[in-house]
Amino acid sequence: MDQQRMENFIEDQIRKLIVFRGNCNEDVCQWLYNTETVFDSVQLQTSNKFLVVQSYLIG
């Protein structure tokens, strides 16, 4: 996969992440598992995980 296609794939996968609001009907463990699965699939570096996850924590 060329560099541009890889970057597009990574961006698409990260955009699919679901926002976590901390509501009582949300499962934080499941949300973390799903988020980490996406991060692993795109081989996101640990330092970038912190930056990305901030955008998906609301409330």
TrEMBL record:
This is Uncharacterized protein. It comes from the Eukaryota.
